[in-house]
Write a structure and sequence with these properties.
Layout lengths: L3 E5 L2 H11 L3 E5 L5 E2 L19 E2 L4 H13 L3 E3 L5 H14 L9 E3 L7 H9 L6 H28 L8 H19 L4 E2 L2 E7 L6 E8 L2 E2 L13 H13 L1 E14 L7 H12 L3 H13 L1 E2 L5 E2 L14 H12 L44 H17 L4 E13 L3 E13 L3 H4 L1 H5 L2 E5 L23 E9 L2 E2 L8 H11 L7 H10 L3 E4 L2 E4 L1 H13 L6 H16 L4 H22 L8 E6 L6 E7 L2 E6 L8 E4 H6 L1 H11 L4 E7 L2 E8 L2 H14 L2 E6 L5 E3 L29 E5 L2 E5 L12 E3 L10 E6 L6 E7 L2 E6 L12 E5 L6 E6 L5 E5 L8 E2 L3 E2 L11 E6 L4 E5 L30 E7 L16 H4 L8
Parallel strand pairs: 1-2, 1-5, 5-6
Antiparallel strand pairs: 3-4, 7-18, 8-9, 8-17, 9-10, 9-15, 11-14, 11-17, 12-13, 14-15, 15-16, 19-20, 21-22, 22-23, 23-28, 24-27, 25-26, 25-27, 29-30, 30-31, 32-33, 33-34, 35-36, 36-37, 37-38, 39-40, 40-41, 41-42
């Protein structure tokens, strides 16, 4: 009798569930999706518009799928248990598609889902299994096909009009549009001057001072256009008001006291968690979701073993299960009856929320953050503490404030009205758990209409006791010039909030949207704010202009609603795709003829060439726009035989004037050397120069005068060296587990990897580094180029830093470390080189004509036995010294490790030599790598003191 096979998508999840199910179950992981559309083909049937995807086993998953098939063939039953969302349902459907044909015993295949990974939730789920939900799978499949259609149909247009390698995304382009539109708003913003006026006052019988804001003069309200708080428009009016207020007699006009209740916020949805983790903990979206994933999948909690600490973390719902509410209320009772509401708090969800899962909450309120602190990493504790406090606080009574609004009048030559409001925390309510720091800061006072950022609510001063008609003393009048600020750039938290409010994307897609626009180099993050790159601005402008329907924000939101309809079975998935594809084809047809061809840009500018004084023109290149001299020409030189010139000078001159425009350079050439050279600007000078060249050279070379001066257009690129960008790059965290990613080298160059890549269970998250990033400008070295005399500069390339001629591409000199040994094959020079893995080797500079390479350093010493003109340096680990070895001494040379399964090849060298000499030089030891001290954000310093909830 075989065991039951359970398949989840994560090794960590498999490890946790395996402990709950017992010996009758074998738990395996699919490690995410096992099937996808092919990479090099659109993979969707479009001819008949069936839109059927041509799914294949994901490259690299073949062995895993074969193993799962063998296990399924022996199992009594198969339970598919990926995450309870569209992606998880698609994984389950693909697993069923692969496993079912090979299950000859016709064992049943079930689908099980659970919102939390606890023993009770898992066992309950296995008691009530179901079949794979076809509608849920089709909703995911439809989204995948939509994105594939946009990517494969529109991206080639960008390759043709801008440059190869660019790509368009259905939702990502709309998110990028938000960032670009905000940047355009900032550039077009005109600051408005305003002068707020404040009166610092105190009662005659008290020394307690407070500040009130001037809001009216002679009963007329102060108002400056586009400015929120009351203010005066210019300094003259402000100084006049200040002079009048200093002479005025001040009395309290009215005092209004009332009680204000502050309700607890709802438990976290995905977007709200991402926003609060960013604002309070300094976590980016990827890190937040990675840490939450580990808390959901399970953490070792002492003798209890692996425990899932939070519910599923991809949700747009604020709904909570009754059993969880009961747990929270049992805990709140211990704090005191005044903290427990008569009935549970109920929170209304958003109108367009899917409401498929509960809000994010702790699986067991008894696991307080402090009680399990020792089992959690620093980042896990911070996020769990945030989730736990939010959930428990959501079921507590409101906080109560005593709020006082005071109107004060000052009378001199005019009547000046000022206003101030203050509040005192009367009862902390939910703040006792949700925000203890705000609960301890009990009083605040601020001028009315002063914007609150959450920090003022924790101030430690309050209004003095004031009564109507009471006289007040003026301490001083405060006024200063201010200007309105442009709208702020988006950070991750505010972008997620904007996407959620506009209905673009869903909780499971926010992190991938933000990652994609950064990976494609469409935006940079400076000081934690998104700044669009030049290529991001250009691509967005082109796509929005030429695809106004496909990339319209309202249409993108409408598609999300239609996908929800597919999920619920109310709309046919092919109808959705048919309508979308019809719009797409119409707009592609128009765009093919009307889209601007950016790669052929040649825009006139007011800039002047620093080399020849000609006007500069703006062009488009591989790394964006740049300035090029208008005197540059691609016309190739032309050679005229001396005999042809002597035979018919007029015909030879006509060949020149027909092919070139003046000025040109006439050169008399002897082989490859110049015998004469003269720049000419008219026919008379041309004739004289050609006569001279015909007498001195064997041929006449006509070369058009060209200026190769270029400079980068930094104005349209983000300033990566700006002070506000900070001195260090933002750290990158694993999207699966939230740990700090580490830099590694692989066969295809450097990449980022999760530090738990080889752990148990492993976290196989990797990310190839994007090579299309804006490089820092070349750094001058002050050293002349040995070939052309121009200055050498340091550049950054795929293999790291290198030094080359600043005259590139005319001069292609690259400085190399050369050995004083001739190449054994062709006598050329041997240079030190570096592989993509970072390993040093030695090769002939005449490559590819000569393919000689050596992993060992060559020494300019002949073998004493006469078998070689050079020796090799071989590090000997046994004695820690360098040995000098003849290249024919096969016993002393390092043995290459053969590939797995390959036979060990014998050396084909027919010469055998035993020469080996031990030197007194030790093997060089690499300097230890200094581990940087990571600065973590202090949550107590960054979190707001209070959060107003209506």
């Amino acid at each position: 009798m075989g065991k039951n096979l359970v398949i989840v998508e994560s090794p960590a999840k498999a490890k946790t569930i395996n402990k709950y199910l017992g010996s009758d179950y074998t738990v395996e992981a699919s490690i995410g999706h096992i099937m996808d559309l092919p990479k090099n083909d659109i993979g969707v049937e479009l001819k008949n518009r069936t839109f059927l995807p041509k799914l294949i086993v994901s490259p690299g998953k073949e062995k895993l799928v074969d193993r799962l098939k063998k296990l399924a063939a022996k199992a009594d039953a198969v339970y598919l248990a990926p995450d309870p969302d569209r992606e998880g349902e698609a994984i389950a459907a693909h697993l069923q598609m692969q496993l079912q044909p090979g299950m000859k015993n016709k064992a049943p295949i079930f689908r099980v889902t659970f919102n939390e990974i606890t023993k009770k939730a898992v066992n309950d789920a296995f008691k009530t299994p179901r079949q794979v939900d076809n509608n849920l799978m089709l909703a995911q499949q439809t989204r995948r096909v939509l994105d594939r259609l946009v990517g494969y149909e529109i991206s080639p247009l960008l390759w043709d009009k801008v440059r190869r390698g660019l790509s368009a995304g259905r939702v990502q382009t709309v998110a990028l549009r938000l960032i670009v539109d905000r940047e355009n708003e900032i550039k077009a913003f005109n600051p408005v001057e305003y002068w707020p006026v404040d009166a610092k006052l105190k009662p005659a019988s008290s020394q307690q001072e407070f500040i009130a804001r001037l809001y009216a003069i002679d009963g007329t309200a102060l108002r400056v256009e586009t400015v929120g708080p009351p203010a005066l428009p210019e300094g003259i009016s402000a100084q006049s008001a200040k002079a009048g207020m200093e002479k005025a007699k001040w009395t309290v006009a009215s005092v209004e006291a009332k009680e204000r209740r502050r309700n607890p916020p709802a438990p976290f949805s995905t977007s709200r968690l991402q926003q609060d983790a960013s604002n309070r903990l300094g976590f980016n979206v990827k890190r937040t979701m990675g840490v939450a994933q580990r808390l959901y999948e399970g953490v070792e909690v002492g003798s209890e073993g692996t425990v899932g600490l939070i519910t599923y973390m991809r949700t747009d719902s604020t709904r909570v299960a009754p059993v969880a509410i009961d747990m929270a209320r049992d805990y709140i009772k211990k704090l005191g009856p005044q903290y427990l509401p008569a009935k549970p708090n109920d929170f209304k969800g958003k109108k367009d929320a899917q409401d498929a899962h509960e809000a994010i909450r702790p699986t067991n309120v008894a696991y307080t953050p402090d009680s399990i602190r020792k089992y959690l990493s620093d980042e896990q504790f911070k996020l769990y503490d945030l989730i736990w406090r939010r959930f428990v606080g959501s079921q507590m009574t409101p906080a109560v404030y005593d709020q006082t609004n005071v109107d004060i009048t000052g009378v001199s030559d005019r009547k000046y009205s000022v206003r101030v409001s203050g509040s005192v925390l009367k009862f902390d309510g939910f703040l006792k758990v949700a925000d203890p720091r705000a609960a301890n800061a009990t009083a605040t006072a601020k001028p009315q209409n002063e914007s609150s950022d959450g920090e003022n609510e924790g101030a430690d001063t309050a209004l003095p006791v004031l009564t109507q008609g009471q006289a007040l003393d003026l301490v001083e009048v405060l006024t200063e010039q201010k200007f309105t600020e442009p709208p702020p750039r988006f950070n991750e938290a505010s972008l997620v909030k904007e996407l959620e409010e506009r209905g673009i994307g869903r909780p499971s897609t926010y992190a991938s949207i933000i990652n994609t626009i950064q990976d494609r180099d469409y935006v940079k993050k400076l000081a934690r704010k998104f700044v669009p790159t030049e290529i991001g601005m250009v691509v967005t402008t082109l796509l929005v202009k030429n695809f106004p329907y496909i990339f319209d924000m309202d249409y993108t939101r409408k598609l999300e609603d239609e996908l929800d309809e597919v999920e619920s079975g109310k709309e046919k998935w092919t109808d959705l795709l048919d309508g979308f594809y019809g719009h797409l084809l119409k707009e592609i047809k128009v765009a093919e003829g009307s889209m601007e061809e950016i790669k052929r840009w040649e825009k006139t500018t007011d800039e002047v060439c620093e080399k020849c004084g000609s006007p500069l023109i703006l062009k488009w290149g591989k790394f964006g726009s740049f300035y090029s001299c208008s005197a540059f020409t691609k016309t190739k030189p032309k050679t005229i035989a001396v005999s042809a010139f002597k035979k018919d000078a007029k015909a030879a001159m006509k060949r020149v004037t027909d092919s070139f425009e003046y000025p040109v350079t006439v050169k008399g050439m002897v082989d490859d050397a110049e015998a004469s050279s003269e720049e000419v600007r008219d026919d008379k000078q041309l004739l004289a120069a050609m006569k001279l060249a015909s007498t001195r050279g064997k041929s006449i070379l006509i070369d058009p005068v060209s200026c190769d001066f270029t400079k980068e257009n930094f104005a349209d690129k983000p300033d990566l060296a700006a002070m506000e960008a900070g001195d260090t790059e933002e750290e990158e965290f694993c999207e699966n587990c939230g740990k700090l990613m580490v830099l590694k080298n692989g066969p295809w160059g450097p990449f980022m990897s999760c530090p738990d890549y080889s752990a148990d269970p492993p976290c196989k998250t990797v990310r190839r580094l994007n090579q299309k990033v804006q490089q820092k400008p070349p750094e001058p070295t002050g050293e002349p180029c040995p070939e052309c005399g121009m200055e050498l500069v340091k550049r950054t390339g795929s293999y790291g830093e290198f030094t080359s001629c600043s005259g590139y591409p005319k001069c292609k000199y690259v400085k190399q470390t050369l050995l004083d040994v001739a190449c054994p094959k062709d006598g050329g020079k041997i240079a030190e080189r570096k592989s993509k893995m970072g390993n040093v080797f030695y090769g002939c500079t005449n490559y590819p004509k000569c393919d000689f390479t050596s992993n060992l350093k060559l020494i300019d010493k002949p073998c004493p036995k006469g078998n070689s003109k050079y020796l090799l340096e071989v590090p000997n680990k046994a004695d820690g010294l360098i040995h000098e070895v003849c290249p024919h001494n096969h016993e002393a040379l390092p043995k290459r490790r053969p590939k797995k399964g390959a036979k060990v090849e014998e050396p084909v060298d027919t010469i055998e030599c035993g020469y080996e000499e031990i030197t007194n030089r030790p093997i060089p030891v690499a300097a230890p790598v200094e581990v940087p001290v990571l600065k973590r954000p202090d949550p107590e310093a960054t979190r707001p003191l209070a959060e107003s909830v209506a």
